[in-house]
Amino acid sequence: MSGAALGLEIVFVFFLALFLLHRYGDFKKQHRLVIIATLLAWYLCFLIVFILPLDVSTTIYNRCKLAVNSSPAESNGSYVTLAPSKQKCFKPWSYIPNGIMPIFWRVVYWTSQFLTWILLPFMQSYARSGGFSITGKIKTALIENAIYYGTYLLIFGAFLIYVAVNPNFNLQWNQLQTIGIAAANTWGLFLLVLLLGYGLVEIPRSHWNGAKRGYLLMKTYFKAAKLMTEKADAEENLEDIMEEVRKVSESIKYNHPLRKCVDTILKKCPTEYQERMGRNMDDYEDFDERQNSYPSEKSLVKLHKQVIYSVQRHRRTQVQWQILLEQAFYLEDVAKNETSATRQFVHTFHSQEPENKIIQYFYTPTVEWYWECLLRPWFYRVLAVVLATFSVIVVWSECTFFSTKPVLSLFAVFIQLAEKTYNYIYIEMACFLTIFFLSICVYSTVFRIRVFNYYYLASHHQTDAYSLLFSGMLFCRLTPPLCLNFLGLTHMDSTISHKNTQPTAYTSIMGSMRVLTFIADGFYIYYPMLVVILCIATYFSLGTRCLNLLGFQQFMGDSEMTSDLIDEGKELIKREKRKRQRQEEGENRRREWKERYGNRDDSTRNRAVHTDQKESSFSETNTSRPLSKYTRSNGRTERDRIELLQDAEPLDFNADSINDDPLELDSGR
């Protein structure tokens, strides 16, 4: 089994990262380099989280072997036996041979650092560039990142000059490398505590509120009102940009040198706008016949960038609106079915996507009613209590992990108890649950935060390239300090435990933090205590209240603005619901009309054709009679009347639609 666990986890983590990237990215439309770079960043970060428990169990076994070798011992099979105490050091099932983990961590760590500090920032600027050639995009990316890279080079150069001039410092290459790692981890730890303090409170609270049907429905109405405003703004912005594209397309004709750039911009526009602009084109006019002021290439690059952004934003809001409508309709169905006497879940609208037959066979309407109306609220409550318990343990351990005598960190207590009995399965499970919960609290916050429209991870393949690359940068910067914080909580880091024991392979590549004592003994120990203040601020929604005061509408139950947006969203959902009901009723009537009169019309048409054949044969035998043309014309008139009856659609005299808004009736028709 040596190395088998490592190989299985490497494969599993790859497919996990690929699945998440497929959910948020679009493999068909986005550039392959963007997909590969983001996948590599996510994969390496998830891999560190999953492999670190194996490193801990292997380190504990190696410590046991060192303790055995330092005293008289006897070798016996797969374990080592101490002669005086008869202690046994069993080899863990996931044991990784010596020499593999240091190389593995070194490759993973430095690859992730190269991605987050050099490659991904450059690719961000490249992806947002509006250039029409690869050379132009690279030039724009280099110019935008000149300040970014120059700042770091200036700081690093000043530090090297200070070390070279000061005679008290005699730093070697390994120490300089450790200082660079410490600087990167310090920046990551600063951001890590902020995100962790939010996730420790918000994740249990979101699951607790998930058991409240009324709360979820009100929040969905609130989101609908905000999304409708954003959707209208995106449509208006797209119309303005398309108007500029139309003017540019009309001014720059087919023989203009910049016409290729205009054609590239037109290809990025939606199909309906391309057809509309194509009808107004007059390519037979030469551009030099009129004394017009033509746009420059720089202005076309800017316009190209605006087109890409506006089209992506418009498509995203359209998809999110449809998803939010489905969610609102489903929550309303749950509220209605809670009082159902038949205990069978009834949907207002049928699912637009074909359901899996296996799921449909087991997940019957009765099972769905029991799950949605009875079991799911209690399941969410129990899960929220469990997550809240984990959050309390994490907060307590973050404030007390520096204490070694006595050991106050609960995670360190659990690991040390298992280390005494060498229960490697328990050690790996405890380590995995701990670091997995910390990762969920941090990574879920990265997926939730939104920086206006510049950074926003939207599911259902609606995330743009810039946001995907930015998320990869955040993951690569947050994961190394997250793992160091976990090792500190479990006292597996010798810097925290103050024991002269064998360190983990992950800690060994980080180097000794004793080079910078003010960071090792100060910032790394006392800064994580700030998580208590952040948790209190998140619990009382201080950040939400501040954003609400600044004019950014946030969901707050005691705010008039929130209640107004809830009412507005409720009316929007009602309007969309009536519109969809009218569409389904029209489709049902059309289907019933075809089923009822389709066979009759076919038989009528067959009789008419048969009559025409008989009359035509009769006219051939009696050419002297002029009545045959009238018979044929009457048959043709009958066929025309039948075809008109087939194409006709029955009128909808619905009493409820009389009071509806005329605009809604037009859109419904």
UniProtKB/TrEMBL annotation:
Subcellular location: Membrane
Transmembrane segments: 6-21, 33-52, 103-126, 146-165, 177-201, 378-396, 425-446, 523-542
Coiled coil segments of this chain: 224-251
Compositional bias per record (Polar residues), positions renumbered to this chain: 618-634
Biased composition (Basic and acidic residues): 582-617, 635-644
Major localization listed first in the record, in broad terms: membrane
Region (Disordered): 576-669
Cellular component annotations (GO), alphabetically ordered: membrane
A Pfam family of this chain: LMBR1
Comp. bias (Acidic residues): 658-669
Membrane topology: Multi-pass membrane protein
Keyword Methyltransferase: no
Presence of keyword Coiled coil: yes
Protein's name in the database: LMBD2 protein
Organism of provenance: Burhinus bistriatus
